[in-house]
Amino acid sequence: MRTLGNVSAKLIGRLYDEDKNIFDIETASSILGKKYNETTDLLSKLVKRKVLTRLRAGKFLIIPAEMGSAGNYIGNWYVAAREVVNSSGYYIAFYSAMHYWGMLTQPAVRIFVATPKRQVVPTGLKGRLVFVFTKGKYIWGVEEVRVSGGEKVRISDREKTVLDSLVHPEYCGGITEAAKGIWMIKDKLDFDKLTGYAERRESNVVRKRLGYILETLELGGEAVLTKLRKGVKDKYDLFDPSLSASRVDKNNWRLTDNVGRKTILSLIRN
Fold first, then answer.
1. Of 72, 135, 262, 263, whose Cβ has the fewest other Cβ atoms within 10 Å?
2. How many whole angstroms separate alpha carbon 36 and alpha carbon 59?
3. What pLDDT, in 10s, does the model give residues 240-265?
4. pTM for this one?
5. pLDDT surpassing 60 at residue 72
6. Per-residue pLDDT for 83 more than 60?
7. What does the alpha-carbon distance between residue 155 and residue 142 come to, in Å, rounded to a whole number?
8. Distance between alpha carbon 110 and the CA centroid of its chain, in Å?
9. What is the distance of C-alpha 61 from the center of its chain?
């Protein structure tokens, strides 16, 4: 348990009351009525005690006392990611976007951010934040949503989140998590939009993975599957690149299915 002195408790209490999970030195100085140097000394001590995280020079994030408070916790980190990323073209992506859209059954403890500019994660956020370099031509299907305290962040929409999970299953818990996530939001997905996104991506393996999953889950309809079959060429691709290449099942999508239909279907039934 982290205990706070009177001055620190006053600061953290006021910041929470004002819904300022992210704040700067000037705000803290104003609340405490202390000089700039005194305030920076206090904030540095709170960073060392892991009460705060320094996002960048002069800006801090309150680390939630209860990590199990998933709603506020994840929202805070979404905003933290927005504050430190070095491009306005960023978006919350992969596992984190799946969490936001209700595609996961477990809490997310790291924030994945797609960004068109390469960037090193700040020291205070290592282990919590992952930057994934993404070419600008692949950044679309993004919307602004409200998270903790009414703050807005950029995040991939449902269909782009599904697509990204098939482009980079390694950032989404693997193909099985992607398939389970599709099933969990099947009634909210626009399959025509999803197919359009797959065609726009111009990746045969992504169209094949999507088609095979939809066929296995009996989703989308024959018109959607017919469009996706355009991605079936002579070359064989791995269904889940994070697993060994040992084939489990046959299919007509020219995928080396190293997962198996039974595995996918058993996951969505549990």
1. 135
2. 13
3. 998 888 889 889 999 999 999 999 99
4. 0.86
5. no
6. yes
7. 5
8. 8
9. 19
* CA–CA gap between residue 207 and residue 218 (Å, rounded): 16
**Dist. CA 189–CA 58, nearest whole Å:** 41
CA distance 159 to 95: 14
Element (H, E) at 173: none
Q: Does an H or E element contain 127, and which?
A: none
Residue 186 burial (CB count, 10 A):
15
Let me know if 60 is exposed, middle or buried by CB neighbors in 10 A (0-12, 13-18, 19+): buried
Beta bridge partners of 129: 111
Grouping H, G, I as helix, E, B as strand and the rest as coil, residue 92 is strand
- In 3-state terms, what secondary structure has residue 33? coil
One-letter identity of residue 232: V
Question: 């099942």: which residue's tokens?
Answer: 249
Q: How far apart are CA 127 and CA 122, in angstroms?
A: 10
